[in-house]
Amino acid sequence: MNSSTKKRGILGLLVVGIVLGIILWGGFNTAMEATNTETFCISCHEMEVNVYEELQETIHFNNRTGVRATCPDCHVPKEWVHKLVRKVQATNELYHKALGTIDTPEKFEAKRLQLAQNVWKAMKDTDSRECRNCHDFDSMDFERQESRSGEAHDEAIDKGWTCIDCHKGIAHSLPAGFDPTWNSPQ
Amino acid sequence: MKKTIVTLTASLAVLLFTGVAIAGVSSLRGDQAVDGMSEKPAKKKQMLVEGGIERSYQLQPPVIPHKIDKDEINLNVNTCMNCHSEKTFEQKKAPKVGDSHYVSRDGKVLETLSSRRYFCSQCHAPQVDVDPLVENTFEGAK
To answer: ipTM of this predicted complex?
Structure first.
């Protein structure tokens, strides 16, 4: 084997590698984005008939200014690494979809407290990161809020509370057995 | 011939008076044809009154001085209790649900809200700032 064929081989490998890389990487990202839409989320009836129905009654779906939050805005992180982690966790949801764990509204209702607590814990652990993609204390004008809201937000900054500490149930119905103190951090 | 003229004149007069009388009547919904659409009332927001609204008479269920359109009262949850419950009212600086609401129909004092007092909005209502349709001079005993 002379040096020119060797060079050509390496070059070919490089080209194939780059092309494959683009296709695989692009495909992976496209698939991840495709599963990151509201349309995809509510293609399962578990999501459509329970949580999506409830969302439609709330301010995150319908409001004065016409801004709407879709499922992934609140439930999938924006940053790539966190998003990937969440997507991997979501494979567990596929497993339970196959098992039919919550395939009727009754089964969903029975599990609602546990499911809600999972989401509350995730939001608490990340300091309500997904809320803060849109909402930020720094851009809140407490003077323009109702006095009770303004005062509570002021206190929240002082005491280091996070959004979910007080705002559980803001986008979906609260589970049976919800204790009012759960929305009252000390 | 004369008789016909008299009858015609009389009928005309009656018709005229009836017309005038009908024109003079207007209902609370305004001067609109009965089969017409009613006038759209001006949009009013639920009132927000700092410190609450005074009762109008003794034993009146206090009216709600804030919006409640995002609150939920159903089989699973009563979100009014997030602030007004015995556990949270101090921290949320909200009035506590009245003691009478913690008594069962048999007179037993309960730890939590009595189920017969569960549906707050059956007695407590939010208010809008509007002129009453009919003048009202009611003054309750304070």
So the answer is: 0.77
CA distance A104 to A113: 16
Structural domains of chain B in order of their starting residue, each with its CATH number: 46-131 (1.10.1130.10)
| Tokens describing residue A128 | 């309500």
Q: pLDDT, tens digit, for every residue of B69-106?
A: 889 898 889 999 999 999 999 988 899 999 999 999 99
- On chain B, the residues whose CB falls within 8 A of the CB of A50 are none
Report chain B residues whose CB lies below 8 A from the CB of A151. Answer: 93
Question: Are the CB atoms for B55 and B95 separated by under 8 Å?
Answer: no
How much is the pTM?
Answer: 0.79
Burial (CB count <10 Å: 0-12, 13-18, 19+), residue A47: buried
Residue for token digits 């349709």? Answer: B133
Q: Name the one residue in this structure whose structure tokens are 């809008």.
A: B128
Interchain CB contact of B127 with A (< 8 Å): no
Q: Which amino acid is at A69?
A: A
Distance between CA atoms of A114 and A91, rounded to whole angstroms?
18
Give Cβ neighbours of residue A42 (< 8 Å, ≥ 6 apart): A48, A52, A71
Q: What is the pLDDT of residues A51-93, one digit of tens each?
A: 999 999 899 999 999 999 999 999 999 999 999 999 999 999 9
